[in-house]
Amino acid sequence: QAQLVESGGGLVQAGDSLRLSCAASGRRFSSSAMGWFHQAPGQDREFVAGINWSGGSTNYADSVKGRFAISRDKTTNTMYLQMNSLKPEDTGIYSCAAEGGAYGTGYNLHPDYWGRGTQVTVSS
Asked: Of these four, 28, 71, 91, 121, which has the most CB atoms within 10 Å of its CB?
């Protein structure tokens, strides 16, 4: 059974950094596009960053461009989100997701698999 498990969330101050990890198991996602999504309290879940199947192409929501970086390690089936210069509005649950199909671009993600999420809280 395919499973995505996030880790690395926590409570930080504005301006700090965090690195989230998403470990995949039960299925290799080495040929799948993957991404991160954010759900702020009381808000809908929204796209944050996507990465294509090879890791060679990434894209970001405007709100995080220049501050966040998505990457993946296909040898360990793990995806990361480096979050710098965190702001209070970055607070929320961060979930990783993966498409079930192969050779996705990471743009306009349509995930088939989701993790449960990890909480990030940024205090001002």
From this structure: 91
